[in-house]
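In this section we walk through a basic example: taking a raw amino acid sequence and producing a predicted 3D structure, encoded as discrete structure tokens. The instruction is simple. Fold the sequence below.
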Amino acid sequence: MQTEFDHIINVNRRQRMNWTLMSLIAAGVLLIGAVFGSAATSRGWFKSGDGNKVPIYVSSDSQVNQQITLNGGFSSIAKTVTPAVVVVNVSGRRQQQSPFGFDPFGELFGNPFQDDDENAPRRRVIPRGQQQPQQPQGRAPLQRIGTGSGVIVSPDGYIITNNHVVEGADKVEVELADRRTFQAKVIGTDPPSDIAVIKVDSTGLPTVPFGDSEKVEVGDIVLAVGNPLDIGQTVTMGIISAKGRRSPGGGNNTYENFLQTDAAINRGNSGGALVNLRGELIGIPSQILSQTGGSIGIGFAIPTKDARNVMDQLLRTGKVSRGMLGVNITPVRPELAEEFGYKGTKGAFIQNVTPDSPAALAGVKRGDIVTEFQGQRIEDSDQLRNLTSQTPPGTTVKFKVWRDGSEREFSAKLTERVLSANADKPEEPGGGQGSEAGGVLSGVRVENISPELTQRYRLSASAKGVVIISVDPNSNAAAAGLGRGMVIEEIARQPISSVNDFNAALQKLGNKKSVLLSVLTSQGSSYVVVKEE
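The resulting token sequence is shown next.
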């Protein structure tokens, strides 16, 4: 029986944990010891829609008032935290679907060239050989469809867990560490962050206080508490292996800023607790990277800064509002940096600017590189995307972009991000007169835009350029991500409006081994560099 809905992402090489190093680090910490101050908790309140006061979190300067010793290990932390970590049993009348559209224990399919478009929807992908579930005739009986974990963060019964644990549930039941069970109500869910809030009708419950995930450092020792493989509550120990991670399966409509840990996390740990040595909640385990479906020491947890922001919004308004700048961004890849004369790879490369968006009104252009946002230097496109989404709509932000050799400062008033549907393009062969490219674009066949091709590939009425009809799968262009139905708008920054323009631009390239293209897809325009391998 399937016991949980963790996202298990298959990889092509084995990962081994360095237990010797971890043991030395742990032993050193245990021998040195750490004395924590007295416990002091505080509670934040607000009035809900029905006028009742609702606690939204419990914070603490310290939950552990003992000295950690080699003999005692981490028992004092475990005794403090485990009573507030619960089992979440989910029942439903249909097969639950992963929020990312694939079997969480199956093969991952994705587009490695997909951009971080703020406006792009999440596409649901069905693995090969798997059919859409058939709708049963009549009302199917409730059956248990999964088990996960949750963390009590309010004595009045508010519990934080993963969205993928409760998604599609018709009934949610919570089992406490003392074996008491309660039926839970789903208060709110947020698939993009994979956070959900549920509540049980009880008071005086044990809680885990929120810690400051921003202060977590690589190498810090952490404990993971949950219900792995439905065997019962389990505590494991490890370190923070990395920060700011994004999983290989993350899509455009996900906000990932994971803490990576080698503390053993398995199916059933999702929604549980990742705590520091103060007994404070610093992360919500959400995914693992694995070849086998079991822990190989690569687990991902949602930082509590992000989780708490989502939870607060769900409790206050019932939804999560995210700021939008109106840009399509990608990492500053070396080939892009070379084409634009930019030194280094830090920042976020702007592939496209949405018309009439905050970025467009501020004067931002395609090819700009965002280097700073609200005084914080930008390391990569994921960081900018998360910072923008965490900023409330209506906020006026200041940011810097690199353009033509220097930084420029802009300000813009963020709007609210709204998802839109996006249809797939059909894969049909072309039939008109076209041109086969040579040189660095060898293997690419294009045709002029026509009413037939506009309809076939669902092109924008304003699209200008030439349509790619076919791409040799073994070509440089295919390796760069070009595909059928895309429109080449520019070659080496020169606009293209016909096959004749296309051929003339290729002739100007001569024997050049790389070329910068502007390509229009359903996600918008973006720059692509095609290089000879």
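Looking at the output, two observations stand out. The longest strand covers residues 234-245. Residues 192 and 254 are 4 Å apart (CA to CA). In the next section we compare this with other chains.
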